[in-house]
Amino acid sequence: MQLSATLSRYLSRQFIFWLVSVFLTLTGVALLFNTVELMRRASGKKEATLGIIFQMGLFKMPHLVELILPFTVLFGAMLAFWRLAKANEVVVVRSAGVSVWQFLLPALIVAFLIGIFHITIFNPFAAITLAKFEQLESRYLKRSTSMLAVSKNGVWLRQADAGGQAVIHALRVSRDQMILHDVIIFLFEGTDHFAGRVDAKSARLDNGYWDVKDAWISAPNRVAKRVDSYRLKTDLTVEKILDSFASPETMSFWDLPDFIDALEAAGFSGHRHRLHLYTLYAFPVLLCSMVLIAATFTLRVNRRTGAVFAIGGGVFLSFLLYFLADVVHALGLSANVPTLLAAWTPAGVTLMLGLAMLLHLEDG
Q: CB–CB of 127/250 below 8 Å?
């Protein structure tokens, strides 16, 4: 029997209603806990006013929505299917000759479309707001001033201290020894008073300074001079420089491929950003697998143990999924697992588990 358009619309409305209900609940809880955590971190910092804290909480909220969206689909689908099963609507539909696959098709389509909307439209918005959050976090909570940016024209690095700041540009980097090649250093007194410029073939990061080789030093109203070696004080380390990269989550889905190419062309590893990109590719499949898992817990339940079984199974699976995704992601970041495999494992494993359980449920 073919699934009628009227029944498809009804099932879709049920799924969307419970999805929105769960989404609003989880979003409110996440916003509350995130704001409390930001207030705890801001205690003792006079610059971080209550208005700044609320602003940071709102900027981070879209990123938190991305994190809770798979669980929103899981619990929303569980509530929708459990409500249909409790009202015996599932029994009526199945007795009319509708298979479980036809019954789940509207919810699967809605979940897949949500996944596509997320990676193409919502993710770029969340990336922008998270970048603004990290800027405020760096300014008011971490109080760090070093910044690094990568573009097709090379690497830009800024460092600052009490005496002024320096802006360093390099065409490429030897990441293992942190050696900058074809270097230009702009020196400033204060924040905007130009004090000089250094052009060099290379600069190596040493303990507490940049060791600049074969440099030309110029300054306003002075004749440029060449020196074999020049030292520029710095508080940067290799770890600080690598941590200064824009996190993958602050990069739009549309900008990630070009950024990865620029990152690797500059001499840095794009492994972390490539893993995030592949994870976004797998996101619609992950949401569909959540629908399949929800169906296995709620489509055939009795009135006495149905709620306990559905809630307990869903909570257990949520923790299991979170643990699996976290472990595989860590293995992918450390390059112990291929990037593509690490990105698709949570979605793939959940999808196969859901399919296997539903095949057993449907065909026995």
A: yes
**CA dist., res. 82 & res. 294, Å (int):** 9
β-pair type (193-206, 225-233): unpaired
Of residues 27, 117, 99, the one with CA closest to residue 67? 27
Q: Can you state the angle between helices 123-136 and 50-86, rounded to 10 degrees?
A: 150
Question: What string of DSSP letters covers 38-64?
Answer: HHHHHTT-TTS-HHHHHHHHHHHHHHH
Burial of 50 by CB count in 10 Å (0-12 exposed, 13-18 middle, 19+ buried)? exposed
Q: What is the model's pLDDT at position 76?
A: 93
Closest CA to 283 of 95, 67, 29: 67
pLDDT of the residue at 157: 87
Q: Is pTM, for the whole model, over 0.90? A: no
Angle at the Cα of 72 from the Cα atoms of 69 and 78, rounded to 5 degrees: 145
CB distance 183 to 201 below 8 Å: yes
- Please answer whether residues 312 and 298 qualify as being in contact, where contact means their C-beta atoms are separated by less than 8 angstroms: no
**How many whole angstroms from its chain centre is CA 32?**
20
232: tokens are: 């520029």
164: left (phi over 0), alpha (psi -120 to 50) or beta: left
CA angle 288, 346, 361 (to 5 degrees): 50
